[in-house]
């Protein structure tokens, strides 16, 4: 017989997600960009770049033999997708015994990190993100885990500032 009843689990999930919604701040998750051929010039597979010829249908015509104004002569365009989500974000500098244990347990070796709690639906986005933006600063992922009671409810990510 379990002391934790399904109704307790439902309340835990409901109130945890409501706390994130009520107390959370905006954080932008920038996902890995998708590369595609330039829509303005012809792509040369041999040189793996633009061949400097306008394709006739692109948005910015240019003289043949010059650099494509859309892709800069690369022949490929990377489009990044980003999501702005609400999450509980707090800067943590491990001072208590519990925080230092958590730091070792999750492989965190620097002194300070940004701890982000978001709904578990964002786990895959956090795992594959290129970088994160919070308060105008860029962060990179150190580690990400799922947490909850019997079922996972939140994604907890540990981020470090990139420009330090």
Q: Summed up, what is this model?
A:
By secondary structure, this protein is α+β, with helices and mostly antiparallel strands. The chain is built from three helices and ten strands; from the N terminus they run H-E-E-E-E-E-E-H-E-H-E-E-E.
Q: Tags for this entry?
A:
164 residues, alpha+beta, 6-stranded antiparallel beta barrel, two-stranded antiparallel ribbon, 3 helices, 10 strands, 45% strand
Unreliable spans: none
Cα separation of the termini: 51 Å
SSE pattern: HEEEEEEHEHEEE
Shape: elongated
Radius of gyration: 22 Å
Summed up, the domain count is 2
Largest sheet: spatial strand order: 1-6-7-10-9-8
The counted number of beta strands is: 10
Structural class: alpha+beta
Rounded mean pLDDT is 85
- Please tally the helical runs, counting DSSP H or I stretches of 4 or more residues: 3
Proportion in helices: 10-25%
Largest sheet entry? 6 strands, antiparallel, barrel
Beta-strand percentage range: 35-45%
């Amino acid at each position: 017989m379990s002391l934790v009843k399904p109704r307790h689990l439902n309340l835990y999930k409901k109130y945890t997600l409501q706390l994130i919604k009520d107390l959370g701040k905006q954080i932008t998750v920038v996902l890995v960009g998708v590369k595609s051929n330039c829509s303005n010039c012809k792509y040369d597979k041999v040189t793996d770049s633009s061949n400097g010829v306008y394709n006739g249908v692109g948005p910015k015509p240019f003289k043949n033999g010059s650099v494509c104004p859309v892709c800069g002569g690369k022949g490929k365009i990377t489009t990044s997708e980003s999501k702005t989500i609400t999450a509980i974000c707090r800067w943590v500098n491990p001072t208590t015994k519990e925080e230092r244990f958590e730091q070792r347990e999750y492989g965190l070796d620097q002194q300070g990190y940004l701890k982000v709690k978001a709904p578990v639906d964002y786990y895959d986005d956090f795992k594959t993100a290129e970088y994160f933006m919070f308060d105008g600063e860029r962060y990179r992922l150190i580690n990400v885990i799922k947490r909850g009671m019997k079922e996972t409810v939140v994604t907890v990510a540990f981020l470090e500032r990139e420009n330090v």
